[in-house]
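batch job 7 of whatever, protein = Methyltransferase domain-containing protein
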Amino acid sequence: MKNKKRTLKEIHDYWINNSKPQRYALHIKRSEFLQKYVDKYITPKGEILEIGCNVGRNLHYLYEHNYKNLTGIEISEEAIKELKKTYPSLARNVKIIHSSVEDSIKKLPENHYDLVFTMAVFEHIHTDSDWIFAQVAKITKHYLITIEAEDIQHWRFFPRNYKEVFEKYGFLQVEEDICPDDLGLNGYKIRVLKKQ
């Protein structure tokens, strides 16, 4: 049962009902780590989208460091409710889209976001939804940052090499590293890709 291939609906239902937003809010070091890369490539005036923002910890951290043009996509209503309670200023001042990425990505403007980023989200995109990567490429104006497990074998994970995925859509990888052990993201890679 553990290794049985799950449907797209089963994956969506899992994340709708198991977002654990209070737990996600605690991992500030992950947001600090992300911001170091954001600062290298994007100015605070840049348009930034996080796919799978959960409770909004990463967006809040960026918001507190003068990034104001922020958008998040989140499938879990529980996570969005917790975002509004935990980060009320963020909730009032940024756009949060309550939707699956599949239902929202085609509605976003092309070449709009200076940066699109994910942290442990693309790894849960079902193979039936591989088409979203082409859409991510279309909406990204300059940079894409992925912080993902690329090799984990588990029913909720769909392993991919994101350098290879996005090179097909005109991106060039400019940076790659293994996430530090103290983030609790053992075996995760960060990739920075630039649209050509």
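notes: The chain has nine helices and seven strands.
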